[in-house]
Amino acid sequence: MKEILISTRKMTKHYPAGEGKFTALKDITLDFGKGEFTGIVGPSGSGKTTLLNIIGSLDTQSEGEVIVLGRDISSLTTKESAALRSRDIGFIFQTYNLLPVYSVYENVEFPLLLLKMPEADRKKAVTEALEWVGLTAKIKSRPGQLSGGESQRVAIARAMVKKPHIILADEPTANLDTENSMNVLQTMQNLNRDMGTTFIFSTHDAKVIGFLQRKITLVDGMVASDEINGAAG
Question: Model's pTM, two decimal places?
């Protein structure tokens, strides 16, 4: 039986809306195990990104329970949430979020500076991460000199460099053509297989869905289905 890294129990999220409230998520009860390659799928507005943000401690639930790596998300202080993200959770966004004035090396190194890792250890980790994603030759380039696929692979290296337990990827192929999407997805699938990192995607991209081992469908903020996807890998 897989080790459970994330559990939600009757998790609900409301947002203020005029004089009332809008319910983005309702009664979400899910477990995510170590080494999963799972997607949260559904139409725009179904609550995919909200769920990812709560799992990543960027937001908190209104009701219910969310446990991530043994920590109750709603009980964490701002500093504790930041520490959890810095150490144990990597993020990959559709817009890459690279720092334009930094080189590829410096962008990947940045999370390790926040962790105050010694320079020699940083150099080894960054070099290894860029080898994982096949970008050693671009180490001195800046984001403006990269293609979309290369930029997203830098973002993957940045997320992976600290070897987190969990990677959260929000529409990671939205700005990529088919060839680059497939290369990026293969890279993430290989990292999942080789390192046992848990990947959770928010997506409605059919290419991503084809790679998933498990597919959780949200409709109107509720779990409509949770199924093994049958993807190889």
Answer: 0.92
Dist. CA 159–CA 108, nearest whole Å: 8
Class of domain 4-228: alpha beta
In order along its 233 residues, the chain shows pLDDT tens digits of 679 999 999 999 999 988 899 999 999 999 999 999 999 999 888 999 999 999 999 999 999 999 999 999 999 999 999 999 999 999 998 889 999 999 999 999 999 999 999 999 999 999 999 998 899 999 999 999 999 999 999 999 999 999 999 999 999 988 888 988 898 899 999 989 998 999 999 998 889 999 999 999 999 999 999 999 865 44
Residue 157 corresponds to which tokens in the numbers above?
């290296």
DSSP 99-161: -TTS-HHHHHHHHHHHTT--HHHHHHHHHHHHHHTT-GGGTT--GGGS-HHHHHHHHHHHHHT
**Of 196, 167, 164, residue with least CA distance to 93:** 167
Domain locations in the chain as residue ranges: 4-228
What is the identity of the amino acid at 233? Answer: G
Separation of alpha carbons 187 and 38, rounded Å: 15
